[in-house]
Amino acid sequence: MSEKNDQKPHLLRKFLIALGILLLLLLAFTGFNYYFKYYGPNVTDNQEYLYIKTGSGFTDVLKTIKEKGIVKDTTTFLQVAYSEKYENRVKPGKYRLHDGMGNKKFIRMLALGEQEPVKLSFQNVRLKETFAGMIGKKLEPDSASIIHLLDSAAYLKTFGFTPENVYVMFMPNSYTMYWNGSAEKFFARMNDEYQKFWTPERKEQAKSINLTPIQVSILASIVDAEALHDNEMPTIAGLYLNRLNRGMKLEADPTVIYAIKDFTIKRVLNRYLVFNSPYNTYMFTGLPPGPIMMPSVNAVKAVLNYKKHDYIYMCAKEDFSGYHNFATNKADHLINARKFQQALNSRNIRR
After folding, report:
1. Cα gap 73→43, rounded to integer Å
2. Which residue blocks in 74-182 are alpha helix, DSSP H?
3. d(CA 300, CA 216)
4. Residue 188's Cα: distance from chain center in Å?
5. CB–CB of 229/261 below 8 Å?
6. Which residues contact 118 (CB under 8 A, 6 or more apart)?
7. 182, exposed or middle or buried, with CB in 10 Å at 0-12, 13-18, 19+?
8. pTM of the model
């Protein structure tokens, strides 16, 4: 056999070995490319969250991702998104982003709607505009849509409220909810929480003091504004109930401040007492048409469980402790008032 023929099997083996190595390299490259495309780090740390608004489509999501620089490589994101059919599975929400997250995990989170719940807390809010702004920063509905519903008599009537008293529906607390949704959805959730609070037992308590749940909350807002210390709330509530039952004006300083809308006032002067407003309880007998602030749960409970006594007057203590001196008659009240006025003068508090 010739030497030339002897070399053929040897060359064939070399070729097959080279071909095998090439195939292995191709497989390795393909595997690496697949892994990198699906699982390699692609999400950046440019943004903490991705917000997908209600009604958004895949094009909208892609536009946000590009504008915010959320992924390093848009091409691989698109490839994986299409392979996972994400374009037909877009769900609104607030999604937490993690630096280095791969396309597969990122898209799976979005497609399954695995958004991060929002923790919403509010208390001691006086004005609707302030409240609407707070909600607009935390949830999808903007402040304008919240204000619109707060002022809509027709819409609020479906819940049994008016634009003047709707504030009592929002029970100060900490809530967990999802970011996406309409203003109407938020109101419905808050009404559910309000209805849960007003159990049959609490409604009976309100009835026993000749008040509706709404009136209880309006009075509670005044108690809340007066009381710096929660343990004094039942006493203050009892005082105002005494005045209501006797047909006396409430003459609550916080209602005057609310009517004027100047919350920097520290000393309610006589000239303020004639400010013409239905919220000014120095001018009008009975409860104001709505709460002067978002009443706390403790204040509402204090009204329902008020302390029985004969007090009809109170004045802040002259030691500025936040507590009050109470009186059953005008003479004793004037003595207490003089002490507090002198304390204000000594500190040069003129308004």
Report:
1. 9
2. 74-83, 103-112, 128-138, 143-150, 153-157
3. 7
4. 14
5. no
6. 94, 138, 139, 176, 177, 178, 179
7. middle
8. 0.85
Separation CA 50–CA 156 (nearest Å): 33
pLDDT category of residue 345 using cuts at 50, 70 and 90: confident
| Structure-derived torsion over alpha carbons of residues 279, 281, 284, 285, reported in degrees to the nearest 10 | 120
Q: Minimal CA–CA distance to 125: which of 76, 80, 167?
A: 167
Q: Would you state the structure tokens that stand for residue 120, as one six-digit string?
A: 């919403």
Q: DSSP label at 123?
A: -
- Within 8 A by CB and 6+ apart from 288, the residues are 218, 255, 278, 279, 281
Angle between helices 213-226 and 233-245 (to 10 degrees): 120
Rounded distance, CA 237 to CA 239, Å?
5
Q: What is the DSSP string of 262-286?
A: -TT--S--GGGGG---TT-TTTSSS
**Which token pair is 313?**
């007057």
What single letter denotes the amino acid at residue 141?
Answer: P
Cα 154 from Cα 318, distance rounded (Å): 47
3-state secondary structure of 95: strand
pLDDT tens digits, one per residue of 251-307: 999 999 999 999 999 889 899 999 999 999 999 999 999 999 999 999 999 999 999
Q: Which of 119, 135, 123, 121 is nearest to 185 (CA)?
A: 135
Residue-by-residue DSSP string for 13-26 = HHHHHHHHHHHHHH
Angstrom distance (rounded) from CA 43 to CA 268: 57
Q: What is the DSSP letter of 175?
A: E
Please check the confidence at residue 28 and state whether its pLDDT lies above 90: no
Q: What are the structure tokens assigned to 245, written together?
A: 């039952």
> What is the three-class DSSP state of 311?
coil
- Quote the pLDDT of residue 9: 67
Average pLDDT for residues 171-193, to the nearest whole number? Answer: 96
Residue 17 pLDDT class (50, 70, 90 cuts): low
CB 260 within 8 A of CB 271: no
